[in-house]
Amino acid sequence: MFGAIAHPVRRDLLEAMREAARPLSITELGARCEVSRSTASRHLDILRGAGMVVARSAQPAVLHELDPTAFAAIESWLWPFVESPVGAGT
Question: CB within 8 A of 60, min separation 6: which ones?
């Protein structure tokens, strides 16, 4: 998952989906992130592969939205570092 969010376009796509609070098409995502449909599609494939985004067919478009379970996994892993930062006692 961390590799998936390493690229700025993928982070922009995730932000766009979070801000929209509704499923978005590739066309909408590309417009919001100022990238072509093919670029958005390529990056969405990576985000779907990482389990961070789900897609569903809504003819004539495919709609994409965040999968909150993936972010819960990241949060649970990161939380100990926030709660008790490394080196905080030194």
Answer: none
- Sheet containing strand 53-58, edge to edge, reads 24-25, 61-66, 53-58
Cα(66)–Cα(19) distance, integer angstroms: 11
pTM of the model: 0.85
pLDDT score of 43: 97
Longest dimension (CA), the chain: 58
Q: Cβ of 28: how many Cβ atoms within 10 Å?
A: 18
Peptide bond into 80 cis (omega under 30): no
Quick one: DSSP state of residue 84? S
